[in-house]
Each structure stands twice: as structure tokens, then as C-alpha cells.
User: What shape does this take?
Amino acid sequence: MKRGLIGLVTLFFLAAPSFAAREGLSEGMDAPNFVGEMLDGKYYSLARDGRGPKVLNFFWVKCVPCKKELPELAELEKKHPGVKFISVHTETTPEKEVKAFLASLAGHPRIVVMSTRKVMESYRFNQLPHTVILDADNRVRFVISGYTDENMRKVESAIRGIE
Assistant: This one.
């Protein structure tokens, strides 16, 4: 019994790094494609979006920190016109509720994509807001979860690094 337990524990520790590698995206990885409908009714696909640096921000209307972050991202979008900002709603929510939420804010990035929780699974995160910065080839250059003033400074610094 003791020997079997030791073997099981050893197997767990040997396997643990591979589980950890599946958590989140890492710098240099290709960004997973996602699709959805934009608020203007047009179809959006990251894979078909073309070249150019991008800031992907994942949010939900019930996320309190998202209410603070989205207007700040709108300001960064104005400061960095060569970078495309894409906000992705991560839950199945009626479009009118998302529009009302966005209208209640001081601002938000121009491109808003309606998606589902599956995008969270493909991008492997579980905290909102979540921001991923991509280079011109849709490779991950920066990833951060949660909203703080320090996180926003890090996001802006990372944006300057991809322009």
C-alpha cells in the first residue's frame, strides 16, 4: 500500500508541470481564434482580422472591475491608434443588456464582440477582466488578469512595446 501511494504521489509530481503548462497563455504562443457577433451585427473572427497589434480585453456585464477598466482602455485606444482594441463579452447575455452596460460607462473600446464562456476555456483564464496583448502576427506578447492601477500601467507599457 505504501509503495502504491509513493508511486501515485510521484506520478502526480511528474505530471504537475504539464498541468501547469495548460494554465493560461504564455508569451510567444499563437493566440487561439475566437468568433462572435459585433454589436453592429457584423461577424468577427480573430483569425480573419488581419495583421497588426491588438489588445484583447475579456469582460462581463456583472464584473465590477470591468466597469473601471473599459473606459481606461478606451483612453488607451485613443493614445495608440496603431493598435486595435477588441473587447470580448464572455457570457451569454442578451445584446440589449450588454449595450445598456456599455452605455452606462464613460467609454469603451470601439470593437465589442459578443461571445460565450467557451472563449474563456480556449484562452484558459478564470478571472475577469482579462487582457491579452498580441503582436502583428497574433502571437501573445503580454497577459494579465484583474484590474488595478498597477495592471493598467503594465498594460500601457506592453502596448508601447508592440507598436
